[in-house]
Amino acid sequence: MTFSKRPVKRTTEILLGHGSGGRLTHELIRDALLKKLDNPVLRELGDSAVIDYKERIAFTTDSFVVSPLFFPGGDIGKLAVTGTVNDLVMLGAVPEYISLALIIEEGLRVSVLEKVIDSVARSAKEARVRVVTGDTKVVEKLAADKLFINTSGLGRVLGRRRLTLKNISPGDKIIITGNIAEHGLSVLAKRKGPGLGLNIRSDCASLAGLIIPLLEKTRAIKFMRDPTRGGVATTLNEIAEGAGLGIEIEEKKLPLSDKVRAASELLGIDPLYVANEGKALLVVSRQEAEKVVGLLKLHPLGRRAAIIGAVTRREPGRVISRTLFNTERVLDMLVSDPLPRIC
Amino acid sequence: MTFSKRPVKRTTEILLGHGSGGRLTHELIRDALLKKLDNPVLRELGDSAVIDYKERIAFTTDSFVVSPLFFPGGDIGKLAVTGTVNDLVMLGAVPEYISLALIIEEGLRVSVLEKVIDSVARSAKEARVRVVTGDTKVVEKLAADKLFINTSGLGRVLGRRRLTLKNISPGDKIIITGNIAEHGLSVLAKRKGPGLGLNIRSDCASLAGLIIPLLEKTRAIKFMRDPTRGGVATTLNEIAEGAGLGIEIEEKKLPLSDKVRAASELLGIDPLYVANEGKALLVVSRQEAEKVVGLLKLHPLGRRAAIIGAVTRREPGRVISRTLFNTERVLDMLVSDPLPRIC
After folding, report:
1. How far is the C-alpha of A199 from the C-alpha of A185, rounded, in Å?
2. Mean predicted confidence (pLDDT) in B216-229
3. Which of A285, A322, B38, B65 is least surrounded by CB atoms within 10 angstroms?
4. Which segments of B194-336 does DSSP mark as H helices, in order?
């Protein structure tokens, strides 16, 4: 063991000792984390945070293993904050507190970690959440790939209404809040390198600003889920199975940028199965669906919102898609994935 | 991409597709997780959980990267539950809910995962916490070492009293709840193989049953922290620095099993720097210290509880140890660690 009372010389690479729980860990936390994420709860530096709560709270967790760490439109830090924030928002909760747990591969450049933490700090500020507790582990080279992040989140649930699958009835409309498939294709394009000529930015964004005011304006929303891993098709399958009802969508109504359409054709990838990180699927009562789309369009993140389908009694548990050629196909749930480590 | 509406044939190894968010992920979660961890909140299988809370809550997070996954007295699953439970208990909170996020290396045997989840379920039941939300990611071979677990936890804070460093004053006594250094040496012995002839079991245990009733019986406890990574010496340094006071301990008062004493001498490792996973350091008012030790000894986890030192005005921020040879040495904080991935 190595001991020292005095600060140790700063290194440019993460050492195994940064995970020892001792002096190096303390200095890493102080220099690379606390300065960026400072708030009164975190400053106490306990292993846990105490939070005053008087209401119903939503609680979520997500690990992020995206490779590469940086991609057009985002990075693992932004993704970790917005992903957890969005899970809370989907439950109708105002995100308030998150935790930040790092698993770092020995040898990671400290500057890379600092860049990620900058992004965590910026994203947390934008989403109005505070990082109140955290953890840092370091594993030896090749025992992890650079950096994994877990964020767990707490939010205050709005009102007494529960947004559960049980609320869904036949006739309800399915709304998507914007263009699909941008996150997955952005990460894929970054992996394949610039030679592919794809210039797609991830849609990675906090949905709190789009969705929370909407929930305060209308009671028409019955259920929400963000179509991340597995894409829109997989999330619709979860909804259909969970509600015990069918879902029909029309592919011509799917909002899709020209770039994503071109890239999907080039790569032979169905955009319905590609991850989104700044979109929500909303199940909304039929009468209010147009109004909800109108409200969504007022926000920068909702400009391309559209009704893409409806809930039916036909084929419970299945998702049917009317294709651009006016034929029908069953949209099954994804089994495996050509795009692992997309988030 | 691979699609299927029907259940896919069960595999004995984790595939990358188990992390796709699609059918394989769903079946893994259903078969390997839900059956073991079932409760009404988790059964809804949303990305988050909604919890009714009317009080102050404690919130904590910890990732576990211990290698090997199984060791005498515990495994990564038990460690993940008890580690997070203990962080909540140290704040004077009754642990109630935890999240479970898995990062799995492709190729891990499903039977190994199931064994770990069995242990999570058993430990959660023992600690009276419910696993209410989770996440599963799979990374390709060599991008992680077998299995990492993050658990975040929520607990209800007892009473209005805050157990903070600010409560600590000169004259307070330092209590350890039992024998030290067992977790770290157990994992180390397992790594070195049976040839070493060490038969040390990890002390890995939930402290809720020992500590929560104690907090209800006495107001003498001013601060608590569990001496995990970095051991008793590092945790005492955190307390001394945080409180701006000195701490003096007497090595002859440290409870230590004969096996741990022998192993420490054999390996040349100072037990004061070795991780514990079922012990707490308590800072207690002088007048009540003997009474608190008496109460601790009534519980199986507290039989070896002892007063090991006191808070002083001398040398603020430093920890001084009176050795077995009646000399003094400064116990610095650990800088690096010969035992990485101990938790």
Report:
1. 9
2. 94
3. B38
4. 208-217, 231-243, 258-267, 289-297
